[in-house]
## 1
Amino acid sequence: MRPSLLVCSLLIASAMPARADWTVTSQRDRLTDKDRKTASLPAARPDHGVTARLVISCLEDRLVGGLILAIETSAVFTRGRMGLRFRVDEQEPEARFMPVNAHGTGMEQWADPDDLRGARRLRVELQPARSPNLFYDFDLTGVDKALAAVPCTRTRS
């Protein structure tokens, strides 16, 4: 391969977005002896040195069971509520003001995971109380397979 062709190939490859890399994990629930699966996807890049990932899991409950979408980060936020804005593909952005999760690292149940079916891109902005806003971009390629990999019965309406 000629050096100029190699350089052009490398420049084109580096300009292309990274392919989504969903990871499905299984963990044994010691109380019920059932396997619980989760699917996770890292953001394309960190913001202000803070990494993030989407996590899809199942809440098993007779009244409000179903898939849960969470965003987890490598930062610990102030307890309480935090702003979050998100946009799926080219839909209108939506805003939420939700409690920070119990670990202080993110938020849960801010969107219905089923709304991601068939989507290609998710952009999320976290608005912590005492630090700069954090922006994350997720390539949702393979989201339908990831959702199917987390078995869950929806009992909430």
## 2
Amino acid sequence: MHKLKHFIIAYCCFFLPSCEMFSAGHGGFMSYSFEIKKKELEGAIIKVIETDSNFYREPEVSQEYKDIYKEITKERNKENPDSEIDTNYVDYYNDGENYVTIKLKNTDYKFTFRYIGDEEYWNNSPNSQFYIVYMRDEYNRGGGYKDKLEPQFIDKLTNVFETEFVQKVSKELGIPFSEEK
């Protein structure tokens, strides 16, 4: 059953060009694949971010921030005081497990990337991938896959991401990567 599930995921994500099944209904700009388990890839990514002075990792949102957000939202929704306020999504795109947001200091570009798969996939697959979900330049221009950005803009930022980040991760791991648009 697991082989069938992985075949279907691979088929949809890599062989059907119109498939946007990466996660949460949105697609990605470029996917990078390494023949290594997710935990090892994640460790190399964290090491590159922590040791290279050109990277700034957007911090995960603290509980204090979530509490403040909850109070602000409660104030805005006074007419419905019994409504439950879910703060889990406040840092949904920077949870550190599925999504990571980094900023390149030398260009002021910002990227959010996501690891492909779920916990089961990460534990059982001999290869792991991540893909760019959002990208912004120094003027905060950009967005996500569905924002219909100009191809030249996408190429410019993905080239910077690959040169400044993915190649360093590859060097840290000591293995090559493959890419998929």
